[in-house]
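Translate structure to sequence.
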């Protein structure tokens, strides 16, 4: 099959209806979820800028990025695909990624036309005028060209779209920002850049409301854009011929644990739990998995689906997510390791231990949003999880 992979930076799983959100309708995401394998416990390995790409493209645990330069594998996934005759294309809105060692394996590296434009000063009048809609239109046009070329030349393609504008430009129309506000609520904000705020313990909810509504409006724009893309794929007959993968390299805190914006590295669910949906010609339609999944699994799954599993080697081996379609209770990993420069965490099916200047323990999956910290009441579990955390950290540093 062909593969179209959409990586949307700063998209948190908790903000989508398919992951249990009830405050906002996201029909396009719901539609895709109903046609896909949905991984409900997809956790990033590190919130550092290049961490997810290290795992997605090179199969190396993203926590290795916390030590400095991003490591690369001898043969990356795009390089292995190119060697086997697959057309590999990277479409990004990050100019610095075009010549980055991480993306060297792609045969084509393309930049969105508006990637160098300055941020807008005011919200757009209509969805079609937003920066996000413009980039999605470019993506749709590229996909349609690739499908047409594939039918003529029978050369498979692998397209990775690295989209960061959702987390950097909030230019959704004011109409969408006012959609859920009542008369006695504070007025909608016309901000076009996500704020970065450390909140005090007594923060006024009215301070946060214009921010969360601006973000919600941007999510509605994204959902409309995704719907247009799904329609375009269906119209050109690409749905049955192309695997579609949607995920995110990290989420966006919106005040859940005292911080708003992209600057936090605190490893709470709003930052580390991301959507992961894989649609592949009817395989896994509507299957929802509770297995703990990490970005390295995307690398292994794509390598298997695209037929190059024997061409790639990696220091950390992910799992092929296709196993979960047949048996969600299959033997899977017991724990996930997450790390930032100043903190680290381990997640098991039953617990989340966060370690920075102190230990925090949360019961999983019951305490979904990490609201009830129980470390003082469970010293035995904290000790065991600290030991596991140290073991996993050594394995990652040791390339295992």
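Result:
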């Amino acid at each position: 099959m062909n593969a179209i992979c959409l990586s949307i930076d700063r998209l948190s799983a908790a903000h989508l209806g398919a992951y249990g959100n009830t405050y906002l309708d996201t029909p396009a995401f719901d539609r895709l979820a109903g046609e896909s394998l949905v991984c409900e416990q997809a956790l990033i390995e590190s919130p550092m800028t290049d961490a997810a790409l290290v795992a997605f493209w090179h199969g190396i645990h993203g926590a290795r990025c916390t030590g400095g330069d991003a490591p690369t594998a001898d043969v990356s996934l795009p390089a292995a695909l190119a060697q086997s005759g697959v057309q590999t294309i990277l479409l990004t809105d990050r100019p610095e990624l075009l010549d980055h060692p991480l993306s060297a394996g792609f045969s084509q590296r393309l930049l969105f036309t508006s990637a160098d434009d300055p941020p807008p000063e005011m919200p757009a009048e209509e969805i079609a005028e937003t920066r996000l809609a413009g980039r999605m239109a470019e993506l749709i046009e590229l996909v349609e060209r690739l499908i047409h070329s594939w039918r003529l030349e029978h050369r498979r393609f692998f397209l990775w779209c690295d989209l960061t504008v959702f987390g950097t430009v909030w230019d959704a129309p004011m109409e969408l920002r006012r959609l859920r506000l009542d008369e006695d609520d504070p007025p909608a904000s016309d901000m076009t850049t996500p704020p970065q705020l450390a909140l005090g313990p007594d923060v006024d909810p009215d301070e946060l409301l214009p921010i969360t509504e601006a973000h919600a409006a941007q999510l509605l724009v994204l959902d409309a854009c995704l719907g247009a893309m799904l329609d375009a794929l269906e119209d050109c007959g690409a749905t049955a011929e192309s695997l579609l993968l949607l995920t995110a390299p990290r989420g966006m805190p919106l005040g859940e644990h005292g911080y708003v914006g992209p600057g936090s590295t605190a490893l709470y669910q709003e930052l580390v739990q991301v959507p992961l949906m894989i649609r592949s010609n009817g395989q896994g339609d509507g299957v929802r998995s509770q297995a703990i999944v990490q970005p390295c699994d995307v690398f292994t799954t794509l390598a298997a689906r695209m037929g190059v599993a024997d061409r790639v080697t990696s220091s950390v081996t992910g799992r092929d997510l296709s196993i979960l379609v047949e048996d969600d209770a299959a033997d899977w990993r017991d724990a996930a390791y997450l790390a930032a420069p100043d903190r680290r965490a381990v997640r098991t099916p039953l617990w989340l231990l966060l370690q920075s200047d102190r230990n925090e323990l949360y019961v999983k999956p019951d305490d979904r949003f990490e609201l009830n910290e129980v470390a003082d009441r469970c010293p035995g579990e904290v000790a065991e999880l600290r030991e596991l955390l140290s073991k996993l950290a050594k394995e990652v540093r040791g390339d295992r």
